Structures are given as structure tokens and as C-alpha cells.
What we know:
The protein is an alpha+beta fold and 221 residues long. It folds into two domains: 3-141, no CATH class; 145-215, ACT domain (Alpha-Beta Plaits, 2-Layer Sandwich), CATH 3.30.70.260. It contains eight helices and four strands; from the N terminus they run H-H-H-H-H-H-E-H-E-E-H-E. A four-stranded antiparallel beta sheet has the order 2-3-1-4. Helix 2 runs antiparallel to helix 5 (100-117), helix 2 runs parallel beside helix 6 (121-141) and helix 3 (54-76) packs parallel to helix 5. The protein is elongated.
Amino acid sequence: MSISDIIKQSMEQGTVNTNLSASNIIVTALAALLCSLVIYFVYKFFFRGAVYSENFNILNVLLCIVTSFIITTIRSDLMLSLGMVGALSIVRFRSAVKDPLDIGFLFWSISTGIAIGAGLFPFAVITTICIAVIYIVISLLSSGKNTYLLVVKYTAEKDSDVRNALNAIKNTLKSKNVYKDCIELTVQVSVKKGKTGFVNKISEIEGVESAILVEYTGDYL
């Protein structure tokens, strides 16, 4: 029997898998909710960006649950799955994701929903826990230092003094703007939490108009 005959026979029968009992639906929903809540709390308590978005975190939960329902529907009926694929193909998502790490959480939610919708409940739970543990360990190991952008504006005559002060800390030059009588430097610095006293020292240098420290998440410039 050829593939076309199998598809034709399946379409004539109307269903591929009719195992959509109430218990199966409840187990699928609970598994999706459990895994999505793990993703939710990992993102909430180990968020590393500048501005935490509760709406984005709720989106992770919804994506996991909705994806599991979609995959379950596709498994249950071949004709219905073809219609659903056609309907979903016209959907366009244009919201920009600024933090690359957020894309990883979106893929995590979607892939978990796919595994649950396919009926791979143990696989989905185990992989969700493993990814959560790996992410938490990496976050804890890299939480010793924070990355900031230091923006210093000063008169051109004090360039050497400001450069000497910056050499006391590890920094990377991001941009330099030279105006008629002043210079504006933007440097990336990595320091331990609370160790930001160098900003006051730079501000006290004669000729420094301002020294601003902002958290750096990779979106600058």
C-alpha cells in the first residue's frame, strides 16, 4: 500500500487516533500546567535582564498549554489537523523579542507543549526539570558579577585623569563622542554586586560633568 493510499484511507475513516477520553484530556492539561509552572517560576526568580515582564512570563505558561492542545488535536484527527495547519499558517507574530534569552524560554515552552501533546509525559517532565536545573546552576555560577554601562561626560582637558580612573577597573570601550569642549565616553564594566563606588570617585574628578551607571543587557547601540 502506497503512502497516498494510506492518507486516502485515513481521510475516509476520518480519524487517526480517537483516544480523547476525559481522563486523557485532564492528564494532558495537568502535565502542561505542571511543566509550564516550572518554566514560570524559573523565569521569575532567576530573571537576568533589566526589566522583568510578567506578561511575557504568563505567555510562557499559555504557550505550553495551548501547544499541547494543538498537538493533541492534530493526533486525534487527520482532516482536522490539515485544517488547523491551514488556519495557523495565516497567523503572523510581529512582536519583537529584545532579549535573546527570552527566545530560549519561548522554545522551551513550545517544545514542552509538543512533547506533552504527543503523549510523552515522562519525557516532558524529566526534560523540563533537567533544563530548569541546568539554567539555575548557570545563573548561580554567573551571578557574582553584574555588567553595566558607564557613561562619563567630561571636559577635554581632563581626558588623561578620567582614563587613569577607568584603568583601575576592567572596562571595554563602547563609544566615544567628542564635542567642541567636552568628551563623552561609554564603557562596559563588570563588577561585583554593590561594588559601584568607583562611580563616585570618577564624579569627584574636576571637570567631570556627569557619570551615569546603567545595567547592560546587550540591547545598547
